[in-house]
Specification:
This protein is of the alpha/beta class. 35% of the residues lie in helices and 10% in strands. It has a single domain, classed as TIM Barrel, CATH 3.20.20. The two termini are 18 Å apart.
Length: 363
Amino acid sequence: MPPSEQPINELPTLAQTSLSLIDTDVHTALNHMDELKPYLPAYYRNLTLDLPGRAGFLSPIGVQRQDAIPEEGGIPGSSVSMMQKQLLDAYQMDYAILNDSSMLGISVHADANYAAVLARAYNDYFAENWLEKDPRILGCVLIAHNNPTEAAKEIKRIGGHRKIVQVIMSSASRSPLGERQYWPIYDAACEMNLPVAVHPGAECSGVANPFTAGFPTSYFEWHNNLSQNYMCQLNSMICQGVFNQFPNLKLVCIEGGIGWLPHLMWRMDKNWKALRFTVPWLDRQPSQCILEHVRLTTQPIEEPENRQHLLQILEMVHAEKTVMFSSDYPHWDGDCPVHGLPRLPEAMKQAIMFGNAQALYNL
């Protein structure tokens, strides 16, 4: 039976008796956007295939690791064999969840119809060129959230693939993700029993709003502000009742950091006590809703001089339930599972390295 037809819990792993490592954020890459043309309707093949946010605020050192350039040529993240060599085999991973972060700009493309077509084309390309290459590889349904109706259709079209484990979309948006226009996406994700993940990369580009204080002026400033956007999106989803409307929905915050979450939970809980009449559907403390519905990935994790402070933050966010390991391979600031985290209590370590992902993705 081919892997795409096998139940996830029957897929072979390196550790046959128990899981030990699941990477929740690994990046594939297109060598050129023209690779999508065979998967596009004829009309769209004649258009220039370019996306907002592909360049963004340019990193002076580049985004990709230079040692990840495939031996056969191409760009980092475009080779299954290089990914196997540097990541899957090197760390004996049980599973790696793949996504192409350079495609997330479709969610802030000015042409929402074109964005939906690109999402469908990419998903077909990914299923054909990646999902069948290694039993450890799992994938996401890429959607353009600026076209919620078509995004919901796409989730239902390909979300039943045995190796698709979540929906992924940009954390950049034209309006906050709690608004009702996005609810068809969450409804479809719950119907297909898939968590929804948000990933940065297109902030301040296309039709996306800038950060709260305005536009940054450098990649350094832009990169520092990403966690701010996650605070705003999660605040919107909690306050507008997304998780009350969709009690089975899980949100995965990828590459947003972790240190901001205690502040947000404490502030929301304090204000809810006095202002809960403005959000009558929110029938419990916001922090309780967050701990039940929200998961975070480790990379890029905060790195205080005193690593015990990071451990305290992990305890504050109940990391034994909410945090999942991610390497962000092959990006310049990626983490390896050996050195990426401080020394952790064994139960918390197992939860972060595989347990929380195993539960969330039903592996």
